[in-house]
Amino acid sequence: MPSLGADMEKGKVVEWLKKPGDPIARGDVVAVVETQKGAFEIEAFEAGILGEILVPVGVEAPVGAVLARIDGPGAAPRPAMAAPAPPRPAIQPVASPPPRPAQIATGRPRISPAAARRAIELGVDTRGLSGSGPGGAIAIADVEAAARKPAAPQPSAPPTGTPGPRRGFDPAAMRQAIATAMARSKREIPHYYLSLPIDMGIASEWLAAENARRDVERRLLPAALLLKAVALALRAVPELNGFWVEGAPRLSPSIHVGWAIALRGGGLMAPAIHDADRLTLDQAMAALRDLTTRARVARVRGSEMMDPTVTVTSLGERGADSVFGVIYPPQLAIVGFGAPRITALPVGDAIRPRPVVQATLAADHRASDGALGSRLLATIDRHLQRPESL
Amino acid sequence: MSDEETIARLRVILGDIAPDLDVSTIDANADLRNDIGLDSMDFLNFVIAAHKRLRVDVPEADYGKVDSLAKFARYIAAAGAPG
């Protein structure tokens, strides 16, 4: 059972997507685990053949418990899918409550996560599809078969019935998880705050021209520019990228940006976009789209919750002017972007109306000082004045 | 295809990109971003999905003309998109 955040103590297995005997590649999604913050996909950290499943569906296990074994080809069975983060001994399944029958109440058809993604890619409406997967679940093949059919007759009346609740999403539990993390942050982390208005005129014009000649599927949003600018700036100011651990900063060589996504039912999550500084703008945009889409259907991967090294919160086009974030412990900093506002700015000798975004930084004063924080914001600004080189 | 039929199809598409919304009760005249709460990523995903399934191309400069289900349906009718 991997740790999906500093405040997680246990999780419940709600689905196994592989069965004993199935071949597993590193990075395959093998199970879905439910925590306070929602349901997350758990990926295999080893390749091999899935051996014994030690924590069946419906059973809770503490962080560090072995969920299943992956047998290497011809090798002795070894534990797999134990927590990569806290090195607790993960030898035997820890005493778990007696197995209860699996009960996943859901108003929506059962569908594998991969098939759900494929359905979104292909634009297939999964309602009414019959599944050929285990337990009648809709599999990728079913989605692809449906996509090949000539345009299915569309209902001419609005669809009836409300969508089922997002599986594994309990707003009250998420509220509690946010409360715990944020209270800990304000109790332990001496925040300092900086802000810098950034002229987005050049970036906006560049984006509009770029999007005008792109197919709709390849269009960019300002968020992709902001993500990339922050990631590149952290390369220049690495002191703000990492964690505060046992009384000292532990900087991270990789830049995994936790991107805050507000959920319409309330609450938010900030899963990681891995190695954001090494993505092209198109890749950054694709990563943001993918992450937002999956967050809406509670299909964020466990590994994405584990390792953000910094957080970015962007209020989008219609939000407030600025946001001074609360650091997600044990991270060192959170960068915020307000909504763009047309503001009178001096440009050369004249005053011009320009779209301005307030960039803010909240950082841990134990690890860094304002001068360094200022450098980060100034570097973000500089990158946003040269959007073509992002 | 009538506007009513187009709106019904747009509802289905919206339900797929925002499964957390109850699309059957959304007022066709409500502003998708200010009233319904689509963020810019959701809105882009909606435009992309409409492009795939209804073969309508909405340039970024026209986003203001498709910001409710009813306006989107009229836009599609005016564009003469095949159903």
Please tell me what the overall shape of chain A is.
globular
Instruction: Please name the fourth-level CATH homologous superfamily of the largest domain in chain A.
Output: Chloramphenicol acetyltransferase-like domain
The CATH topology of the largest domain in chain A is: Chloramphenicol Acetyltransferase
- CATH fold descriptor of chain B: Non-ribosomal Peptide Synthetase Peptidyl Carrier Protein, Chain A
Number of distinct beta strands of chain B = 0
- Give the number of helices of chain B: 3
Secondary structure class of chain A reads alpha+beta
Task: Give helix and strand order of chain B, one letter per element, not per position.
Answer: HHH
Proportion of residues in extended strands of chain A:
25-35%
CATH domain class name of the largest domain in chain A: Alpha Beta
Give the oligomeric state of the chains in this entry, treating copies of one chain as homo and distinct chains as hetero.
heterodimer
Number of domains of chain B: 1
**Which superfamily, in CATH terms, is the homologous superfamily of chain B?**
ACP-like
In N-to-C order, the SSE pattern of chain A is: EEEEEEEEHHHEHHEEEEEEHEHEEEEH
| CA(first)-CA(last) distance of chain B | 6 Å
What share of residues of chain A is helical? 25-40%
Major sheet details of chain A: 7 strands, mixed
Q: From the helix content, strand content and strand pairing of chain B, which structural class follows?
A: mainly alpha
